[in-house]
Amino acid sequence: MTALLETRGVWQRFGGLVANSDVSISVGRGEIVGLIGPNGAGKSTLFNLIAGVLPPTQGSIWFDGEDVTNLPAAERCQRGVGRTFQVVKSFETMTVIDNVIVGALVRNTVMREARRKAHQVLEFTGLAARADVLASDLVPAEKRRLEVARALATEPKLLLLDEVLTGLTPTEAQTGVALVRKVRDAGITVLMVEHVMEIVMPLVDRAIVLDLGKVLVEGKPSEVVRDPKVIKAYLGDRHAVGA
Amino acid sequence: MDKNFSARRRRDLIIAAVLAALAALAPLFVKNVYVQNILVLTLMYAALSQSWNILSGYCGQISLGHALYFGIGAYTTELLFTKFGVLPWFGMLAGGGIAAVIAMGLGYPFFRLRGHYFVIATIVIAEIGLLLFQNWEWAGAAMGITIPVRGDSWLKFQFMRSKLPYFYFALALCCIAWFVTWWLEDSKWGFWWRAVKDNPEAAESLGVVVFNSKMGAAAVSAFLVAIGGAFYAQFLAYIDPESVMGFQFSLLMALPAVLGGIGTLWGPVLGAAILIPMTELTRSYIGGSGRGVDLIVYGTLIVLISLALPQGLVSLLSRSKTKGATR
């Protein structure tokens, strides 16, 4: 079976800056893949390319066996790409349930069905008790959760999680990890960008390390963390030699 | 939860029906023509502001150029009537249709602009429209069009003796604009619009085509405002560019919604009910002094309300409710 998501030789340049150079990755159905790398490695750019915020300068992106390189973000969502944002982008003047209904409307045109779907998603993500609260009144961890809920309501095949576990307390992060597992168990493939290694590594099936816009290493989390190239990218030469 | 939601929707509908019924009875008690005139204008501006609110309140695309659509409604109706003998009822719909098409045509380039740039574009376009009509000989140029009035007629929608038919039409228009908003509020479009207003990028990631959503809002909004313009033209029985397309109309559509609560169902009605009588009364009681005292009073009140209640007057009504929810 073909991979659910594939990027083929993707480049992204912003003026003189090369954010992604020749990135080819693939994500198989049912996997949880972690996309990691130091700051400025090009993770967010790659995410935006996959989500369709902007087209790549060069290369192509394939989703579910089709070339989606030039499709806008809304169209990709309709095809089954759901995403969250690193800097949360809740609909602040709307209630939690209304936020999620916006996502549910992608697959449910009748309002009553969209609402029912949204309630299901809130149950699933543990936000049901906060349904009628304004999004602006949520605490940060709940806002992260709302991002996930909203994306799940679009019934994605692939869920892109952009640092949903960053900046949370250890307890909150563990709840987040449990949620990501639950999402995968529901049959949704997950590609996640994450900073916090000790949380993300036990969670993912496979890790892809980006550095300076290129794929540095790819493999099982346990192997990736021991790879000298990865240690060097994160900590500098001296530590790599020591290892 | 769902029960609360549908209960609130039903309650809104019932309140609206009761208010409309009470308003319909008002002429039984109000015989003074001057006061009746104020009532007609209040209802008309409530309807206009409600329509403006669809694009600018719900969808967040602040327009200060809606006078253009108002004027297009007025001119289409009267040009069709005076030049081709088309009855105002049809002219009204034609005006609405033309305004909607123009709104989308203008939206095509301008919806790429954001924030203040969009607002500036709407002002400029409405100003251009005004200048075009001032110089368009066939449409009467700056002289305008006088509508030939030959006695009371529902067919031609003109009445000389009584203001009551106008009152009931304005009430109907107000009800329609309110009902359309009520209906759209719990529709796919309503949700898309609010999402677009709050965060276009997130909306796009959830499958909302932002551009199309704005176009839809612009079309509905312009259509309803043009119907209002057609009504106003019939009401005055005379139009010229300044009196149906002047900048003050753009302001008088925006202010009630802003005052009452922008992007809310009841804001425009509430705002118009306070603002329009206030405008008329300050003008007639202290406007005669010739020193613009009425405008000073009027402006001061608006500033005070904006400072004290930035969310608009409806926030007073819903304050207790939100507090309970956030706890």
TrEMBL record, chain A:
Keyword Nucleotidyltransferase applies: no
One of the protein's GO biological processes: L-valine import across plasma membrane
ATP-binding as UniProt keyword: yes
Domain ABC transporter span(s) in chain numbering: 5-237
One cellular-component annotation, GO: plasma membrane
Keywords attached to this entry: ATP-binding, Nucleotide-binding, Transport
Tree of life domain: Bacteria
One Gene Ontology term of the molecular function aspect: L-valine transmembrane transporter activity
Task of the protein: Involved in beta-(1-->2)glucan export. Transmembrane domains (TMD) form a pore in the inner membrane and the ATP-binding domain (NBD) is responsible for energy generation.
Designated name of the protein: ABC transporter
Organism: Bradyrhizobium manausense
Organism lineage: Bacteria, Pseudomonadati, Pseudomonadota, Alphaproteobacteria, Hyphomicrobiales
UniProtKB/TrEMBL annotation, chain B:
GO molecular function terms attached to this record: branched-chain amino acid transmembrane transporter activity
GO cellular component terms, A-Z: plasma membrane
Membrane topology (UniProt): Multi-pass membrane protein
Keyword ATP-binding: no
Membrane-spanning parts: 54-75, 87-111, 117-133, 166-184, 215-239, 251-276, 296-317
Keyword flag NADP: no
Location in the cell: Cell membrane
Name of the featured protein: Amino acid ABC transporter permease
Major site of localization recorded for this protein: membrane
Keyword line: Cell membrane, Membrane, Transmembrane, Transmembrane helix
Species of origin: Bradyrhizobium manausense
Lineage, highest ranks first: Bacteria, Pseudomonadati, Pseudomonadota, Alphaproteobacteria, Hyphomicrobiales
